[in-house]
């Protein structure tokens, strides 16, 4: 089998830390590439230019381990390793697991949000990170739609600068949804700390709220249980519309970026734009998963 660029990076990074990449299996190849090595090691290859984010993931994972929070564990070695410009990290493989549930999300968020601020270079939450780049990469969209997305981005940035204040700021996951929770036999485990930062906890709560209000993938009763468990309903907060708009823009531009290289997702990307532009009826919409 021919060696792909990702495989070449994998081999070089593994060699640097003394691992053998022979018989590695791909788990997920998307914006980040994740591979499984024999003997319980998972390798995560980030995009070039994301060294700081990769380092932060490892630091956050180690901090969560020290705090006793169920989360994926970074291996005890010097990392990230950079191979051909790609920051690469190494993790303990999880036991057999399924995707998490809404109840798992809120249980782990309550633990995370209650932790004291650590002495780590977390940085402040940026809800618009990489959105402009995603719009630029969305070559299958009409230019009029791309310009509308750019205008929407600038409008949301302006609103964000004077956003409503809510719950006390804390460490936030940054992308808190069921896909970043692994349900194991011993309980749920938190994953993917690429967007971990210091900011408003409502940002993490909005992800689940949108499953009710935007995508229709969570039932009213499930969401009510989520709110009862956390102790608040973010949809009733003054800043919800802004936070929801920012998250919907992220979800739409993510789909649009990947539609440029995956023709099977072009219809979904266009549909999400149509929804935001008022061309596909009112919420909730039936957005399909990407990647």
Write a short abstract of this structure.
With 291 residues, the chain is of the alpha+beta class.
Describe this structure in words.
The chain has helices at 5-17, 51-67, 102-113, 131-137, 143-161, 202-213, 220-230, 240-259, 266-276; strands at 25-29, 33-37, 41-45, 81-83, 86-92, 97-99, 170-172, 181-184, 187-190, 197-199. It is α+β, with helices and mostly antiparallel strands and 291 residues long. The protein folds into 2 domains: 5-93, Phosphorylase Kinase, domain 1; 102-276, Aminoglycoside phosphotransferase (APH), C-terminal lobe (Aminoglycoside 3'-phosphotransferase, Chain: A, domain 2, Alpha-Beta Complex). Strands 1-2-3-5-4 form a 5-stranded antiparallel β-sheet. The protein has a 3-stranded antiparallel β-sheet with strand order 6-8-9, covered by helices on one side. A hairpin with a 3-residue loop joins β1 and β2 (33-37). The radius of gyration is 19 Å and the shape is globular. The two termini are 24 Å apart.
